[in-house]
Amino acid sequence: MGLITGIASSPYKGVMFVLEQIRKSVDRELYDETVWQQKLLDLQMRYDLGEVDQAGYEAQEQQIMEQLDLINSLWFGETDEEEEEDEEYDTGQFIHNN
User: What is d(CA 38, CA 66) in angstroms, rounded to the nearest whole number?
Assistant: First the structure.
């Protein structure tokens, strides 16, 4: 019975392996900070060469920065608002009473 089950499940395992490889590739594309930093550098270069106008540059830059913020929040659990709140305490506005 084990041999029959193994043969019958082989196509399933193959499909699952391929789907897992696709998922890993998509995750790298979406959540790898270096990929998005490179996209930002490429955008800057295209802007400097005149291939992208000001409005296109600003729109694409905003999308890239939002993705980098998302990656940062996934890795470190902080958003920009939380970082700004932390900075308020770092500037001495927070008084600790003993």
Answer: 15
Which tokens go with 18?
């391929």
For residue 78 the two structure tokens come to: 């902080």
Structure confidence by residue, pLDDT tens digits, 33-42: 899 999 999 9
- Give the whole-angstrom CA distance, residue 42 versus residue 5: 51
What's the pTM?
A: 0.56
Question: According to DSSP H, which parts of the chain are helical?
Answer: 2-31, 33-48, 54-76, 80-88
**62-77 pLDDT, tens per residue?**
999 999 999 888 878 7
Determine which helix (DSSP H) or strand (DSSP E) holds 92, and give its type and residue range: none
